[in-house]
């Protein structure tokens, strides 16, 4: 699972340590989950904040990196 949370300024960010000072949500390590969340606005709904595309892009990169590590 990857955590997406709000930083102290209230901006959404991907947290590698799994901790964030404010509201947050976990998303599975699967590109399909990220695609669904992007399409239906799930993260924005949970965080009560607009989640920009760059956050979803970062999630996809994080998933790719984790899959490379686990397969390599």
Output the keywords.
alpha+beta, Hypothetical Cytosolic Protein, Chain: A, three-stranded antiparallel β-sheet, 3 strands, 18% strand
Characterization of the model:
This protein has a single domain, classed as Hypothetical Cytosolic Protein, Chain: A, CATH 3.30.1230.10. Helix content is 49%, strand content 18%. It contains 3 helices and 3 strands; from the N terminus they run βββααα. Strands 2-1-3 form a 3-stranded antiparallel beta sheet. Strand 1 and strand 2 form a beta hairpin. The mean pLDDT is 89.
Instruction: Kindly name the structural category.
Output: alpha+beta
Beta fraction: 15-25%
* N-to-C order of helices and strands: EEEHHH
- How does CATH name the architecture? 2-Layer Sandwich
Q: Give the CATH H-level superfamily.
A: YlxR-like
Short description:
The protein has 72 residues and is α+β, with helices and mostly antiparallel strands. The protein has helices spanning 31-40, 42-47, 53-71, and strands at 2-6, 12-15, 24-27. The protein has a single domain (2-71), classed as 2-Layer Sandwich (Hypothetical Cytosolic Protein, Chain: A).
Write the layout of secondary structure elements.
Elements: E1 2-6, E2 12-15, E3 24-27, H1 31-40, H2 42-47, H3 53-71
Antiparallel strand pairs: 1-2, 1-3
Helix pairs in contact: 1-3
